[in-house]
Amino acid sequence: MTATTLDAAELARRTKELLAAHPPATTSREDFLAARFDAGLAWVHYPEGLGGLGASRSLQAVVDTELAAAGAPDNDPRRIGIGLGMAAPTVLGFGTDEQKRRFLRPLWLGEEVWCQLFSEPGAGSDLAALGTRAVRQDDGDWIVDGQKVWTSSAHLARWAILIARTDPDVPKHRGITYFVCDMTDPGVEVRPLRQITGEAEFNEVFLTGVRVPDAHRLGEVGDGWRVAQTTLMNERVSIGGSRLPREGGMIGPVSRTWRERPELRTHDLHQRLLRLWVEAEAARLTGERVRQQLAVGEPGPEGSGLKLSFARLNQEISGLEVELLGEEGLLYDDWTMRRPELVDFTGRDAGYRYLRSKGNSIEGGTSEVLLNIVAERVLGLPAEPRTDKDVAWKDLSR
Question: For residues 326 and 264, is the Cβ–Cβ distance under 8 A?
Fold first, then answer.
């Protein structure tokens, strides 16, 4: 059966075969995940041999539903979200056959955690202004020096997706190249950044004389900005458009508190909760529509709208929850300095959700930048005037 004739019934049949040959109750998690990948049921829209079957992206839900009903283990997607949501589609889109074979299987199995070395102290919202340098050596490899910041999971990561300046003599968007960086290199130093929550989920990463083989370059030299757009568009969809049940995400805890604690209710809070509940449900359904659109193409600027809604709703909902709880909302469960493996919005208290959501309008693209993207690329409004479009990066004021 060819990929073009794969349908839901065939995917369900193959999933049942996987379960029969590798019963979750008696198969180790590692062995089951490996068998699933090799059967092409990891991400069914990927090519055969790379965890997929070349099927429609929309059929992934058939596989996931069958496996969830059977109690099969997953690959802990929240822990490896950067790899799944950003690195994998970029490697698939721009990697060589050898790079795809090397990186995709251990990435999906969760054997190798990934992080993202994009933002810098002087290049966050204006990412294309980045100054980390990659200089090509006589043997063809690259030496990288610079600093990155706000790097989630850098303290856990084996690999990083990295963009660096390879030509300072051309305008900033044209002098960038995209690499895969080995986080175990002795020239890589990771320092924790303690946040308002007390945790150090983010990191600074210092790169000093890091040698990156040219075999770890994704895309052409100087074409890194175009490659990075694939990463960024997928990132925004993965942040703002994750699949949720009704009342999933931040609206869930405050809705439960409202139902279980009638003594806290006021008319004003009721009106605000109703509005936010409706907006959260509209955002959830919009995310589902975008995922259906992905079945026939790659993420576009629409993902920026999803991520905008995600940030605004999280901040408004968490603020409402703190107000609803009154004095209880001022309490904080644990200010211990630790370096977590994932962000757990719903597993902590209201104070944590309120503080952590402040970062939602910064991470994955600031809301101000995303508003420009939506205005220009979705609504077709005129672009903002730019004075640096044709100026070499080395001549820009910094």
Answer: yes
Q: Is the pLDDT of residue 296 over 80?
A: no
The pLDDT of residue 294 is 66
> Tokens at residue 387, please?
């004075």
* Backbone dihedral angles phi then psi of residue 135, each to the nearest 5 degrees: -115, 130
| One-letter-per-residue 3-state SS of 128-180 | HHCCCEEEECCCCCEEEEEEECCCCCCCCCCEEEEEEECCCCCEHHHCEEEEE
Question: Which residues are within 8 A (CB) of 80 and not within 5 positions of it... i.e. 6 or more apart?
Answer: 107, 110, 113, 114
Tokens of 297: 């193409």
User: How many other CB atoms are found less than 10 A from the CB of residue 175?
Assistant: 22
Residue 56 tokens read as: 């429609």
pLDDT tens per residue, range 142-168: 999 999 999 999 999 999 999 999 999
Question: How does pLDDT run across 164-223, given as a tens digit for each residue?
Answer: 999 999 999 999 999 999 999 999 999 999 999 999 999 999 999 999 999 999 999 999
Residue 276 in tokens: 């936010």
Listed in sequence order, the residues at least 6 apart from 210 whose beta carbon sits closer than 8 Å to its beta carbon are: 143, 144, 145, 181, 182, 185, 187, 188
Encode 365-391: b = buried (16+ Cβ within 10 Å), e = exposed: bebeebeebbbeeeeeeeeeeeebeee
Q: Radius of gyration over alpha carbons of the chain, in Å?
A: 22
Instruction: Tell me: pLDDT of 3 over 60.
Output: no
Whole-model pTM above 0.70?
Answer: yes
Q: Is 341 a catalytic residue?
A: no
Kindly name the residue from 201, 235, 302, 321 that is annotated as catalytic.
235
| Contact status, residue 319 vs residue 358, Cβ threshold 8 Å | no
Residue with tokens 């983010």: 202
Rounded distance, CA 79 to CA 19, Å? 24
For the four alpha carbons of 366, 369, 375 and 378, in that order, the dihedral sign comes to negative
Nearest to 119 by CA among 111, 127, 107: 127
Burial state string for 297-331 with b = 16 or more CB within 10 A and e = fewer than 16: eebebbbbbbbbbbbbbbbbbbbbbbbbbeeebee
Per-chain mean pLDDT for the chain: 92
Which amino acid, residue 363? E
